[in-house]
Design goal:
The protein is of the alpha/beta class. It has ten helices and 17 strands. It has a domain of 56 residues. The longest helix is centred in the last third of the chain and has 23 residues. The radius of gyration is 20 Å and the shape is globular.
Length: 353
């Protein structure tokens, strides 16, 4: 089959890498190169090891601990049994592009999808008709493919991030009560990625938050973070959405690389084995994304005293043991194991379902 993929990020390229083994695959990327602009914190759980082998070219750092802060400045420190991985997003993206090209896929840069069968060459300003048996939208949170084929309205957060030169102790700081959430992620012991995500006024919130991490700003980044909605449709006839375009996102943290790559594997399986894509990806990651969705709805209604109480409750060794060994990509496993150790939290968990 002739498959066109709109979007040359890691999820689009990974889809191309797998599909090109059996099909003719062409990627259309609206930017002039892979991996730019950078719009991601680049932190991955160890679940990434279930998908690919880590390469030193794209690993910036390994993180073995995080601190989660309450409004009263109390925090819980979680020491990971397996490290979180901080990646250089440009090199990470190029890794997947290389896999796609080696598999036989082609990529056209500066080509923007504008209609159901047209792409615009941004250099010549001319449109070209494209023909395909299947179309894959891996074109990010503002997916033109989704808009063109009427695949539902999205909700978003806006992220603002600065790369700051500042010595640190190589521990992630996470603030679930600032904006929608805020972070300081060590790229190294000399550089931090400091940012916030918020529904409204992200820049103002960032300016205030970044005072906690004063240092020389190397660069500023920003981007749109889609919010997962369980009823969002991700396929229609011969059109499929994957990754951010499908809002396959952890609403508690904004992380989408791991679920997006997993969805790419399920998309390829659906196409190659003539199975239902919606069923496959939902069976693999849908329940966990739903848990993140419900947790976010509860957290959005938290007051400062709720956060203070929750951090205090979680700051017990038997709870921290669960948080230290279970991946954020598998929240249902985290919740069930915490309930075994602290059944009194069942009242809180009932709000999820």
């Amino acid at each position: 089959m002739d498959i066109k993929i709109i979007g040359g990020g890691p999820v689009g390229c990974y889809s191309a890498a797998i599909l090109s083994k059996k099909h003719n695959v062409t990627i259309y990327e609206e930017h002039k190169e892979t991996g730019k602009p950078i719009q991601c914190t680049g932190i991955l759980t160890d679940t990434i090891n279930e998908i690919i082998k880590l390469k030193k070219e794209f690993v910036a750092n390994k993180i073995y601990a995080t601190r989660v802060y309450a409004p009263n400045k109390e925090n819980i420190r979680i020491n990971f049994k397996k490290p979180n991985i901080i990646v250089y997003r440009d090199e990470f993206d190029k890794y997947f592009l290389d896999k796609a090209l080696k598999g036989g896929a082609k990529i056209n840069y500066n080509n923007q999808f504008v209609k159901r069968d047209e792409v615009l060459d941004k250099i010549t300003n001319k449109t070209t008709t494209i023909k395909y048996d299947l179309l894959v939208g891996a074109d990010g949170p503002l997916s033109k493919v989704s808009q063109t084929f009427g695949l539902g309205r999205r909700d978003y957060l806006v992220g603002v991030q600065a790369i700051i030169k500042k010595k640190n102790d190589n521990v992630v700081d996470f603030y679930p009560h600032i904006g929608t959430y805020a972070w300081a992620v060590p790229e190294s012991e000399e550089v931090l990625r400091v940012g916030v995500a918020a529904e409204k006024n992200p820049l103002a919130i960032f300016k205030d938050f970044s005072k906690k991490y004063k240092g020389k700003i190397i660069s500023m980044q920003g981007g749109i973070i889609p919010l997962h909605k369980p009823k969002l449709i991700t396929s229609k006839e011969k059109v499929f959405l994957v990754g951010d375009a499908a809002a396959q996102i952890k609403n508690t943290t904004g992380g989408g690389l791991v679920p997006g790559l997993m969805a790419a594997e399920e998309l390829s399986k659906a196409i190659n084995e003539d199975k239902n894509y919606e069923t496959l990806w939902r069976n693999r990651i849908g329940r966990d994304l739903f848990a993140h969705y419900k947790l976010r709805k509860i957290m959005n209604n938290f007051k400062e005293e709720d956060w203070n109480k929750l951090i205090k409750i979680l700051n017990e060794d038997r709870i921290k043991e669960v948080l230290s060994k279970e991946s954020r990509d598998k929240p249902l496993k985290i919740i069930s194991n915490i309930l075994i150790r602290k059944p009194s939290l069942l009242k809180f968990v009932k709000q999820l379902f």
